[in-house]
Amino acid sequence: MRTNFILAGILACISIGSQAQSAKVEEPKGKAIVQVFGNFHSGFGVLNDDRGFELERSYLGYEYNFGKGLSAKAVMDVGQSKQVDDYHRIAYIKNAMLSWKKGGWTLNGGLISTTQFNFQEKFWGYRYIMKSFQDEYKFGSSADLGLSVAYKFGDCLSADAIIVNGEGYKKIQKNDGLNYGLGVTLTPVKGLQIRLYGGLNECGEEGKKDITNFAAFAGYKCGAFSVGAEYNSMWNAAYADNADQYGYSIFASAKLSETAELYARFDDLCSDDDWNIAKDEQAALLGAQFKLGKYVKVAPNFRMSMPKADGAENVYSAYISCYFGL
Fold first, then answer.
1. For position 5, what pLDDT does the model report?
2. Cα gap 44→304, rounded to integer Å
3. What is residue 301's predicted lDDT score, i.e. its pLDDT?
4. Measured between alpha carbons, how far is 301 from 319 in angstroms, rounded to an integer?
5. Which 3-state string (H, E, C) describes 126-183?
6. Dist. CA 286–CA 84, nearest whole Å
7. What's the Cα-to-Cα distance from 159 to each of 33, 182, 211, 290, rounded to whole Å?
8. Is the residue at 123 inside a domain?
9. Do the strands 70-79 and 281-291 form a parallel or antiparallel pair, or are they unpaired?
10. Cα–Cα distance measured from residue 204 to residue 176, given in angstroms and rounded to the nearest whole number
11. Which of 177, 277, 295, 315 is 20 to 30 A removed from 269 (C-alpha atoms)?
């Protein structure tokens, strides 16, 4: 009788475990990726005639988790290109990648997100309003074809390395050179994060120079408040000798409620010997963000650009930025 009772208990445990496993297997492993950035804007002064509605960018894709740390992601980027002399929208493949995670290791391969400014962009948190400094001023590309690996040593330290073509995700590989990068992320105390990154983008053409990048970032989050600052340098921009650029960005945000928050940012872009003076500037951004449900954000903001070229006038504009994302 006692043996039968024990056997029944074992069978019940096996049955419960099998049901739990079946329920786990039946859970959805894939999810759609839909993100849409848009705005209504109006300029003032010299930009008084610049106004209208704009659909800046759309990300459409799918991510699937195979289990055991293996996942795949494919994303299409639909937007505008400054390298095309018309106003048609252009579609690019932004990501087509495999990822594997095991323990403290993360390995990515394919058309992957780069690590040059991805950390800063996530900390800034308002990509749909304005790109982070390095992306805004073309210090590097946000995605490229290659491999990246990261290892988390503990709660206080992680490191990563990347090797990609160096052409970005909008172009096929033209040059023989590759782009190498190394990064270290520190969390010395709770809420404080420090990021250091160095990269070398080989030119692969005679008569031109390799591009070298360096970035330093520090950010602190405490409750509803966050503040971050980054310094960036790029030597031999566009593979041109002595075409050096540098600059910094400071930004902060404060959460007022579950649906409202304020943010502000200041950028300063410079070039050695004023070789890029026509594009060097200081820029300021101030605004608010409101969450309209789970998937929609609306962010009115005011922007000011202060060009450094002699005789150039300051530029003022007002935006209502909008975001929809799943």
1. 44
2. 10
3. 98
4. 5
5. CCCCCCCHHHHCCCCCCEEEEEEEEEECCCCEEEEEEEECCCCCCCCCCCCCCEEEEE
6. 31
7. 28, 8, 22, 35
8. yes
9. unpaired
10. 5
11. 177
Q: What is the number of helices (H) and of strands (E) in the chain?
A: 3, 16
Residue 47: predicted pLDDT: 81
**DSSP per-residue codes, 273-311:** GGTTTTT-EEEEEEEEEEE-SSSEEEEEEEEEEEE-STT
Pull the structure tokens for residue 151: 């290892």
Instruction: Give the closest residue to 292 by CA, choosing from 259, 263, 258.
Output: 259
Domain assignment of residue 218, yes or no: yes
* Other beta carbons within 10 Å of 61: 18
- Residue 277 tokens, joined: 């003076």
Tokens standing for 111? 């058309």
**Structural domain for 86, as ranges:** 28-325
The answer to whether residue 177 is domain-embedded is: yes
Give the residue carrying structure tokens 């929609």: 296
Per the structure, the count of domains in the chain is 1
Residue type (1 letter), 68: K
Residue 13 within a domain: no
Give the chain's radius of gyration (CA, Å).
24
Model confidence pLDDT, tens digit, residues 248-293: 999 999 999 999 999 999 999 999 999 999 999 999 999 999 999 9
Report yes or no: 52 and 40 within 8 Å, Cβ to Cβ. Answer: yes
166 vs 41: CA distance, rounded Å: 33
Strands (E), 171-238: 179-186, 192-201, 211-222, 225-235
> Does residue 28 surpass a pLDDT of 60?
no
Nearest CA to 125 among 318, 285, 248? 285
Residue (of 255, 257, 246) closest to 226 by Cα position = 255
CATH of the domain at 54: 2.40.160.10
**227: exposed, middle or buried (C-beta count within 10 Å: 0-12, 13-18, 19+)?**
middle
- Write the DSSP symbol of residue 47: G
